[in-house]
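ok so for the tutorial part 2 we go from a plain amino acid sequence to predicted structure tokens. step 1 is just haveing the sequence, like this:
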Amino acid sequence: MHASTISELTQAPVLDELALADFSVGDDPTAQGRLALPISAATGSPNTVVYLEVDPGKRIPLHTHTADENFVVLQGTGIVTAGDRQWEASAGAIAVAPAFARHGWENTGSETLKLVGFFGTNVLINEFDEPVAPFGVATFVTPVGS
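step 2 — the prediction. this is what the tokens look like for a chain of 146 residues:
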């Protein structure tokens, strides 16, 4: 087993203390949420952790990454799509989106959907069908600036 290192962090990130960035996809007012990348190449880790929040009635549109993404639902209820499969997931559920599989989330509940995604790599290429604000393009690398 291999332990990940986080060489540039002085303490482990705390979800409730993360600075979240708003994002939106295309012109669809339902395609928006907030995210943080507390662990990535930018922090010296060989892995990536993404924290996502999606308000009721909002969604993360279908998109792909160049690595498998393992999700844990922390709060809320939603529908996850991964490839040609779709199912409901609520707090405590886990899901996997294989590399290059189109996947997304829709918040179908009455509270904010909170997710954590784990990637076994520290640099990812992300591809959406429409431009993602604030990046201004549909395909981008994270961490930004990599």
